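re: ur question from earlier - yeah i can do the single chain one, its not a big deal. heres the input i used so u can compare w yours
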Amino acid sequence: MEVKELQRKLGFWAVLAIAVGTTVGSGIFVSVGEVAKAAGSPMLTIAAFIIGGLIVIPQMCVYAELSTAYPENGADYIYLKKAGSRPLAFLSGWTSFWANDAPSLSIMALAIVSNLNFIFPVDPLMGKLIATALILLFMLLHLRSVEGGANFQMLITIAKIIPFTLVIGLGIFYIRGENLVTTASNVSPIGIGASLMALLAGISATSWSYTGMASICYMTGEIKNPGKTMPKALIGSCLLVLVLYSLLALVITGLMPFDKLAASGTPISDALTYLPTLGGIAGIFVAITAVIVILGSLSSCVMYQPRLEYAMAKDQLFFKCFAHIHPKYQTPDYSIILQCALGIFFIYVSDLTSLLGYFTLVMCFKNTLTFGSIIWCRKREDYHPLWRTPAFGLMTFAALASSLILVASTFVWAPIPGLVCALIVIATGLPAYAFWERRNRRLANEC
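and the output i got, formated as C-alpha cells:
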C-alpha cells in the first residue's frame, strides 16, 4: 500500500547534523581571505565573523517560530503561502528548483572533483563522470532510507568538523601576537567612521559562510517533536558554526601576516604553511578536507531539496509525479530522482550553470520575503506556533535588515543580470502558476 504522507523519523542529532553539514561548506576555504580584504584589519576580521554569526540568530528564531507553527515540508514555500501569497510562494519554489537546487548539485559535485584533481589528476571527461557517479550514489542513499541518509549525514558532519578542529587545536599554539595587531602594509590608519564601514563590509563578506542552517525547514514534516527539535537545532547549529568560524578566523589571522591573508585566495592552505606539523602537506590536507566538507554538503542537498517540490506537488502546483512517495522506502522518490537527473544534466552544461549564479539576487530577496511573512502569519487565526521568537519586533527587524544587506551586496555584484533574472522568473513562473491553478479549478468543478 502506498504511503500517503512522509513519516516523522528524524531526531534532534540528525537534524542538527543536516543544519551544520549544509552550512559548513566550501565557502569557508576562501571566505577568511575575502573578509580580511573587506575588513582591512585583523581584529575587524575576527569581529566580522563573530558579529556575522550573531546576526544570523534572529533569522533562525524567525524560522524556528514559522516551522513550529507549520510543521510541514516545504520551508519558504509553505510560509509565503500561509502569509497569503500563493503566487509568491509558487515563484519562490519555481526559482529554487530551476536556478538553485539542481544547479547546486552539479556545482558541488564538480567542486569535489576539482579538489580530487589536486591529489591525483583526472581528465575533464573522467571528472564529469566521477561527479555524475557522486550524485547517483547520494541519490540511491537518500532514496532508500531517510534514516540511513540521516545517519550518514551525522557521520560526515563529524568528519568535516574534525580537520577544522585539528587546525584550531594546533594553530592556537603558533599564533603570533603581532599578526593580530598589524594591518596590511598598504593600509593607513583609519578613523572610527571608516572602521565601522570596514566592519560592515567584513560582516557582509561573512554572509555566505553562514547560509544553510534553515535547510532543515524543508524537512519539518519528517522531524520528530518539531516544537522542541526545530528551535534547538536551528539556534544550536548557528552557535556551533559561529564558534567554529570565529576560532578558525582567529587562528588563521594569527598565523600569517595580514597583508598576505588579505591577498590570499586560499587562506587556510596558506596559513597551514606556518604550522611546522602540517606545513609540508598543507595543500593535500586542505584538498582532502575540502572533499569531505563538500561531500557532506552534497549529501545534505540531495536529501532536503526535493522536499520543496514534493510540497508544491502536494498542493497541485507542480508536476504531479513529484508528490509520489515510495511505498517501501517512504521517501519522495520521483522528486529525488528527477532533481538529481537535472543536476547531472547541469554537469555537462557548465556554462549554463555559471549563468544560473546570477539568480542569487532573486534567491536572497526570497529569503527577505520569508522573514517578512511572519508578520502576516501572526495575524492568522490558525497560527499556533509551539515556540515563539523572543523580543519579536527587534528580532524580526534584525532578520529583515541582515537579509536586506545581503540583497544589497548581491545587487552590487551583478545588478543588471540580477534584474534580468528576476524578470525571467516572473515571465516563466506566472504562466506556469496560471496553468496549474486553471487545472486545479477545472478539476474542482468536475468534482
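The mean pLDDT is 90. not sure if urs matches, ping me
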